[in-house]
């Protein structure tokens, strides 16, 4: 079922720091602890929101896709359901790669009971198919594509792990690479300028958040340290945008609300800067860049899993040109 939803156009962030926030078409279902991945389908970049907590359950198989369009310079679009995950999970690792969505691991109960599941979604057939399972069960593993490989870093079985796996879609096999120096989960991971950047995360629990920045060079198979994130956090949305790596939101044990913090790392200068904060705290989600905006779907406004949201929050450093796209 396709749901046509208008975009909100009210500015909802202060202007004292760079950038501004607005609201896009809300999700049909309030959710948190979701995975997010984007792929291009019929020349349109689409965002998939996968699994998580929703409708009072912590093992949702729900998958919703957002197809963006533009109207009067604002982002609009539609949400619709697509084929669900083979089974309900939260804290799944996901990435878009060559027109398909790959998922790895997750938890089958609330932030617990890791699985080794791995699947691929083909939008042409609207079907999920199993691929080689993880070598061992992991939840909250961080996943990103770099070149012709998919890297899986960190995560948790019973404790946070230093694991660094590479999945080769061509051979359907995993191999091991240099591990993290400190194991952690609920961590951000992005590929930038042919390197991986592992940002923040926690050691076992949100009472032990970290500010680590670890940089992996695949040419040498080595990690080195970057400047620490100013605000130690876990469960935040981390994304490459406008030549920087943004770390947005997150949680910490004992907080009344999730972080609104929006900080960005400049790989060139090895420095962090502060940007316009979220209008409301969020954790348990991820981010995508669509039409020049950071898109943060759903997530939780308070630490833990007691509340979910259906917002689509949009961040702009400056107004980009928008191309009207015809959805299929």
> Considering the protein shown, what is the CATH homologous superfamily?
Kelch-type beta propeller
* Strand residues, percent: 35-45%
Number of helices: 0
Describe the global form.
globular
Low-confidence stretches: 1-15, 319-328
Largest sheet: 5 strands, antiparallel
* Rg, alpha carbons: 18 Å
Major sheet strand order: 1-8-7-5-4
* Range of helix content: under 10%
**Category from helices, strands and their pairing:** mainly beta
The CATH C-level name is: Mainly Beta
What sequence of helices (H) and strands (E) makes up the elements?
EEEEEEEEEEEEEEEEEEEEEEEEEEEEE
Known CATH architecture: 6 Propeller
What is the distance, rounded to the nearest whole angstrom, between the alpha carbons of the first and last residues?
13 Å
CATH level-3 fold name: Neuraminidase
Q: Indicate how many domains the architecture comprises.
A: 1
Number of E-state strands:
29
